Hints:
Blueprint: H1 9-12, H2 24-36, E1 43-45, E2 55-60, E3 63-84, E4 91-105, E5 111-117, H3 118-131
Antiparallel strand pairs: 1-2, 2-3, 3-4, 4-5
Amino acid sequence: MIRDICKDIAFLSQKAEPATPEDLSLAADLLETLKAHKDGCVGMACNMIGVNKRIIAFENDGSYMVMFNPEIVKQCGLYETEEGCLSLTGTRKTKRWKSIKVQYQNEKFQTRFKTFTDWTAQIIQHEIDHCEGIII
Length: 136
């Protein structure tokens, strides 16, 4: 189900609760909503659709990927950039890492580790910030 985009700063500023296997349908909604906004959005966190769970979805080299409970465990290559967000108006300057290693759970809630670089790494960092209640 395509959900409305949350623009409530107070809600977006809350730290997300851990995702559980009961949240699989929520992840499907997040992915469907992201695909519906593909012309102007490359990643979403669950709080952007009004649910405070630690789930992100993002475009990854031409396909989509969903992560449950993602955490950055290693990073390198700090740089400055500017980002926009579907939940916020305008763009903001921020700092990101060129390469990140992420620990997350897949749709079977198996723990996985994967390294991402460049644009995909930037997307993931933005969405994990949403999970932490950080407004960029």
